[in-house]
Structures are given as structure tokens and as C-alpha cells.
């Protein structure tokens, strides 16, 4: 009798490797086809024109980028403080505090940020003639971004406070601290350390939300990156300023994203 060798079938891991290889090959083929079919000369002229890009400097950095950072930082400070207050109110034993905080969070998380800016920039001054925000445009933007950010930060802070072991509050109270002092000096500092990564993520989102400043009709001196790029694109009849302005946002978001990843990795190691 002749012996027949039995050939085992492919293992699941081998099949998965083959499937992934096919997918990568197809994706590379599609990308290569698009690359070869694109009109790169027109793309460079309309979106990557170096001569036009040179005309954006130094104002792109000294004005637009600086304003974006100022708007983001000031709005974040307002949102941080208000969000922390709202989080404490949500955990309060007083029903009215919990109700007010929940209503605020739901309303401002549900409203488009652009609508908040429109109400602040035009609605309130119309309702109260002669009213002016402190620091003009900068104050208006800080309040607008802060009101929106506070709704999201409140939920982040609430989760962080609830993640702190209850024994921390009990230990502080046993040492004679009142509830408020224990919350401020013991619980909240620990909660903030726990939620540092999502807090940093919110700063990144706020940097992008600062682009909504354009609805306020800001001047060149108070324009942020998106408004500056849009105005320059219209003036020069070319889309390169928008691409360069978009790239400038990466100077803010990429370093912060790297920080978030490092912090998250550190927290995982600590666990």
C-alpha cells in the first residue's frame, strides 16, 4: 500500500496574514493609481504655491497663531474653573445645585458652539445696549469658548472626583477638615491628576473650536488661523493660505497629542 501524505490546511493565523497582505496590496494599488492620475501641477499651483505661502509670513505666526493660542488658553481657563464648579455642584447634596448643573451641561453640550458665539457677539449687545465685554474681542472669545468647554470639562471632572476613593474624603474629615476644605485640598487635586489626559484632549478640541471666531467679524489684528487663512485666500485668489493655516494648527495639536499619549502610558504603568 502506498502511503498518502496528509497536508494540513492553513492555520487561522496564516489565513489572517494572507488576508491582510491582500488588503494592503489593494490599498497600495489604489493609492498608486490616484497618485499617477492626479494633476500635480494644478495642485501645486492652487494649494501648495510656495510664492504665495511666503507672503503669509511673519503675520501667520506673529498674529494668527499667537491669537489662536491666546483664544484657546483664555477659553480653557474659563472652562476649567467653571467646569470644576459645575462638577462639584453635580455631586452636591443640594438638589437645586445638581439640577442647575445638569441643565447647564445638557444645554451647552447640545447647542452648536457657533450659536453660542452668535448670541454672545450680537444677541447680548442687542438686548443690553451699551454692554461691552472686558478686553473686547479677546474677552468675548474667552467667554464663548469657556462656556462650551465647561460643559464637557464638568463631566470629566465629575468622573475624576468619583474615581477618587471615598476613603480619602473620610480620612480628611476624620482629621477635622470641613467638606469644602477636604474637597479642595484632598479630593480635587487627586481627581485632576487622574483626568489629565482628557483635560489635555479638551485643550486640543478647543484650539480647533477657536476657528469659530470668524462669525464675530474680527479684524486682521485679532484674526486667528482660520480667519487669517480664509481672508488671505480670498485676497490672493488661491487656496494655499488655507493649507498653510491648517498646517499651523499642527504646531499646537501634535505636541499636545504626544503629551497625552505619554501621560496615558505613564498612568497605565502606574496601575
Automatic annotation (TrEMBL):
It comes from the Bacteria. Its main location: membrane. CDD domains: TM_PBP2. InterPro entries: AA_ABC_transptr_permease_3TM, ArtM/GltK/GlnP/TcyL/YhdX-like, MetI-like, MetI-like_sf. It is a multi-pass membrane protein. This is Amino acid ABC transporter permease. Residues 65-260 form the ABC transmembrane type-1 domain. Belongs to the binding-protein-dependent transport system permease family. HisMQ subfamily. Keywords: Amino-acid transport, Cell membrane, Membrane, Transmembrane, Transmembrane helix, Transport. It is found in: Cell membrane. Pfam families: BPD_transp_1 (PF00528). The chain crosses the membrane at residues 21-41, 61-89, 110-131, 137-157, 178-196, 242-261. The keyword Transcription does not apply. PANTHER family: GLUTAMINE TRANSPORT SYSTEM PERMEASE PROTEIN GLNP, MEMBRANE COMPONENT OF AMINO ACID ABC TRANSPORTER.
